[in-house]
Amino acid sequence: MFPGNRVLTATTMLHVLAVLLFPGFALALRGRAFRMDSLSDSISGALSKATGSIFRGTCEGGWGSGGGGASTGVIKDGMREYFYKSCGLGGYEMLKGEFESNKVMHATKTMKVPQPICLGTSDYSAFVVFEKLSLGGFGSPELFGESLAAMHMCTSQNGKFGFHVNNTIGATFQPNTWQDTWADFWDKERLGHILSLCKREGASCPWEEDLRVKVRSVLSSHDCKPSLIHGDLWSGNQGFLTDGTPAIFDPAAYFGDYEADLAMTKLFGSNAKGFYTRHAEAMGPDHPKDGWELRQIVYNFYHIANHYVLFGGGYWQQAENMAMRILKA
Ligand SMILES: Nc1ncnc2c1ncn2[C@@H]1O[C@H](COP(=O)(O)OP(=O)(O)OP(=O)(O)O)[C@@H](O)[C@H]1O
Ligand SMILES: [Mg+2]
C-alpha cells in the first residue's frame, strides 16, 4: 500500500471511530448530567428538610471513588456548602453506617468530626451529607492525641462491645453485633468474619483454628473497656483544619478496645511521637497496657486481611506472616 493510501485509510478509520464512539460518549455525558441534576435536587430537598431552611444547590465533583466505592463532592448554593458522598442505591447501608458512626462520634463533643446532616436516596443514587471541613492545615499532634483520648474515654451505654448498626471497612461489610466480652467480639465480628471472606477469595489458612484460639487467649487476659473508636484511622482519614484543629472523618465506628485505633495509625506509616505520648498520658497512668505490641499485630491483621479481600495480591502473604508472628508469641 502507498503512503498516501495509508493516510487515507487511517483518516477514514478515525472518522468511523468518531462516528461510532462520539454518540456513546455524548450519551454517557448526558446520562451523567441527568443523574447529577437528580442528585442535586434530592440532596437539596433533604438538606432543606434537615436544616429547616430552603436550600437549592448544585453538586460539584462526584467523579472520584475511594476505597469504599462512593464518589465524593461538594454541594453549594452560593451561601452554604456541604460535603456529600454518593453511590448506587445498593450502597445505602454503607452510607448509613458512616452517617451513624459520625453521629455517635459527633455527639460526644470531644473531637472534630464532620457533623452528619442527612442521608437519603435519589432516583439513581444513595447519598449522605456532612458538614464540609476546611482541611489542609497543620496542628499539634499532642492536641490530636489528647482529643482522641477524650473520645476513647466515652464508653458504650450497655457496657457491651459492638455498635447499633453494621458498617463497612473500605467496601467490606463489617458486622457489629453486641457481645459481652472483647474477646468474643473480636473473634466473632472481626477475626472469624474476615477469615471467612479471605477463604471465599481463595486464601488457604490451615492455621485458622490455632490463630483464633491464640487471639482469644491474648484478648481474654486484656482488661479493656468498650471505648468509642473511629475504626478506620489510617493516615488518610485524619488531618488538621486550616485553624489547626485536629479532625477525623470517614469512620467505621464501634465500641471496642481503643488500641485498635492506635494500631491502625501505624499500619501505613505512623503519627508523630507526641500523639501517642499525650494520648497515653490522657488515658491514665497504666496506659499503654502491657502486651500492646502483640495486640497491635492482632488488630492490624484484620486490616491487612481485609486488604487481601479488597485488592488480593501480596496482602495474603503479609497477613500470613502476621498470623505466624501472633502464633509464635
Ligand atoms: N466532611 C468533609 N469535608 C471536607 N472534606 C472531606 C470531608 N470528609 C472527607 N473529606 C476529604 O475527602 C477525601 C475522601 O473522603 P473519605 O476519606 O471520606 O472518602 P473515601 O472515598 O471513603 O476514601 P477512602 O475509602 O479512600 O478512605 C478525604 O481524604 C478528605 O480529604
Ligand atoms: Mg477515607
Output the keywords.
Phosphorylase Kinase, domain 1, Aminoglycoside 3'-phosphotransferase, Chain: A, domain 2, 2 domains, five-stranded antiparallel beta sheet, two-stranded antiparallel ribbon, 9 helices, 11 strands, disordered N terminus, binds adenosine-5'-triphosphate, binds magnesium ion
Structure description:
The protein is α+β, with helices and mostly antiparallel strands and 329 residues long. The chain has two domains: 14-131, Phosphorylase Kinase, domain 1, CATH 3.30.200; 141-328, Alpha-Beta Complex (Aminoglycoside 3'-phosphotransferase, Chain: A, domain 2), CATH 3.90.1200.10. It is 49% helix and 15% strand. The chain is built from nine helices and eleven strands. The protein has helices spanning 3-51, 92-107, 141-152, 182-200, 208-220, 259-265, 273-283, 292-311, 315-328, and strands at 58-61, 71-76, 81-88, 116-121, 125-131, 167-169, 172-174, 227-229, 238-240, 246-248, 254-256. The strands form four sheets. A five-stranded antiparallel sheet has the order 1-2-3-5-4, sandwiched between helices. Strands 6-7 form a two-stranded antiparallel sheet. A hairpin with a 3-residue loop joins strand 4 (116-121) and strand 5 (125-131). The protein is globular, with a radius of gyration of 24 Å. The protein starts with a helix and ends with a helix. The structure holds adenosine-5'-triphosphate and magnesium ion. The site of adenosine-5'-triphosphate has 16 residues, from strand 5.
